[in-house]
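Let us practice reading a record.
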Amino acid sequence: MKLFNGLRTKIGQYTLKKTSVGSCQRQFLNWSEIHRIQIVFNRIGQKQADEMVKFVKFLLEEGKKVDVLIFVDAKKLDETFQNRPGITYYCRKDLNWFGKPTSIAVEEFLSRDADLLIVPEFTDIFHFTWIATLSKAKSVVAPYSDWNTWATMLLKIEGKDINSFLQQAIHYLGFINQK
């Protein structure tokens, strides 16, 4: 099984490398220059989902346009997870055998232009790497890790707390390229 997982990972990385040639050029943007934000996250539990809802409300109050792509670790989505304007779900059945997202929802998410992509994920999950690498976002913010090579800005957060990560992201984006 370990050999198969290693092979699957290598094939996924190779395919991503071939696919990402010539993808979007990243840049650093100040918070005031950011108008459209994309968020992709792994819905683990209700507490985490509630924190994300508060954060999205904050972004909307700030006048930002927000698109959220949520991964639910289930074979199939039940009726609880209905797509709504600005919020799209995908699950394990939407991933191919090496972890590439194959759903139309993910393709549509990747086709949209954005100023910022936020990926509040503290573990190495290939489909998030795929989405972040191929995103048209001008800037990508993610937690610091040794395996993260696709983010524009990496934040080291103690305790792997999503709320702290989101607060720090907004805080530091305010300092970049101040005019």
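A brief commentary: The longest strand covers residues 36-43.
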